Amino acid sequence: MKAIQLEKPGHFRPIDIPEPAAPGPGEALVRIHRIGICGTDYGGYLGKMPFFSYPRIPGHELGVEVLAVGEGVANVAPGDRCSVEPYLNCQHCSSCRRGLTNCCEAHKTLGVMCDGGMVERYLLPARKLHISRQLSYDQLALVETLAIGCHAIDRGHLQPGEHVLIIGAGPIGLSAVEFAKVAGAKTIVLDINEARLAFCKTTMGVDHTITARGDGSELKALEEITGGQLADVVIDATGSHKSMSAALAYCAYGGRLVYVGITQQELTFLHAPIMHRRELSILASRNALSRDFARIIQLIEDGRIDTRPWITHHARFDDMIAAFPTWLKPESGVIKAVVEV
Ligand SMILES: [Zn+2]
Ligand SMILES: [Zn+2]
Q1: Can you give the CATH number for the domain in which 331 is found?
Q2: Cα-to-centroid distance, 128 and ligand 2 (Å)
Q3: 322 occurs within a structural domain
Q4: Does 202 lie in the same domain as 167?
Q5: What residues contact 255, with CB distance under 8 A and at least 6 apart?
Q6: Of 80, 94, 288, 304, which has the highest C-beta tally within 10 A?
């Protein structure tokens, strides 16, 4: 069957691989219908993603149809449409035993640490499938992106009426916006890109936007918006060590700073005494939990999350390799590109 492999940074190639085996106990064989392309994939292509190894078949944002199930599988049946939770966990380590399946000590994300879903058919543990009778395959492929923001907002314990500052209006920041709105918070987005900020206001219903100029005007703007209180929760979705190092200054007294973006560079806490004076909490957010997937599917089904603004580009499987580099260009206006298999 057909697959697409990222042989090395900057180089995809179509390959032919054997069909997966018949599903064993607890497993499901699925047909891949849609593959969402995300920052991890762009990072892998550019050779900038720390967890990525080569050669690799990417693909972790998947909308799939169940073809067959193995012994003991009760949560899905052939014909079901599902989203895939692409975080393989061991079920035995101390993280897994405590329910922290998102940061299993032997964690593997499909398409990053092991071969993923840029294939026609795929075999995986059935417990990683989340069913929906209403969502389209496009929507199902979007659930994982949304799960990242969902988990980050949960990590910040965002409460109704609180101010949340989301730094970085890429797909991860936008996914945090969705759940900040669901939480009933007042949303503020900070980014350097005016077009993205305009999109946040007009399409995503963000309450306030701030242009990042790097001249201190950001803090003043935040003070104005929040009546001097600053942000109860700050979500940094930039992956920029500069932004991450400076983000403490935006936190209100008792505030929570959540790092959902990741950097390989050293973080230096500018304004470090603020951390004590305001008794701040600094949190990391990694992947998402199983329950997040079920919750997101429900929120989309109920119309509380509108997926229409999200998917901006499509490509057929055979056209993916040619289209991929164009999605890297900011002027393409990509929010989410989806591959149709
Ligand atoms: Zn992703
Ligand atoms: Zn584990």
Answers
A1: 3.90.180.10
A2: 14
A3: yes
A4: yes
A5: 230, 231, 232, 233, 234, 278, 280, 281
A6: 288
Which residues sit opposite 152 in a β-bridge?
none
Could you tell me how far CA 104 lies from the centroid of its own chain? Answer: 18
Give which of 189, 187, 184 is closest to 161, Cα–Cα.
Answer: 184
Q: Name the 3-class secondary structure at 37.
A: strand
Q: Ligand 1 centroid to 224 CA: how many Å?
A: 34
Please tell me the distance from the alpha carbon of residue 239 to that of residue 114, in angstroms, as a whole number.
Answer: 23
Measured in Å, residue 182 CA sits from the centre of ligand 1 at 21
CA of 88 to the centre of ligand 2 (A): 9
* 285 CA → ligand 2 middle, Å: 17
Angle at 291 between CA 144 and CA 188, to 5 degrees: 60
- For residue 175, the ligand closest to its alpha carbon is 1
pLDDT in tens, 187-220: 999 999 999 999 999 999 999 999 999 999 999 9
C-alpha 171 – ligand 1 centre gap (Å): 9
Q: Which domain holds residue 239?
A: 148-284
Domain co-membership, 204 together with 264? yes
Q: What is the pLDDT of residue 281?
A: 97
Model pTM greater than 0.85? yes
Q: How far apart are the first and last CA of the chain?
A: 12
Structure tokens at 196: 């993205």
Ligand nearest to the CA of 107: 2
118 with 199, same domain: the answer is no
Distance 61 CA to ligand 1 centre (A): 6
Residues 16 and 111 in one domain: yes
Pairwise CA distance, residues 110 & 166, whole Å: 27
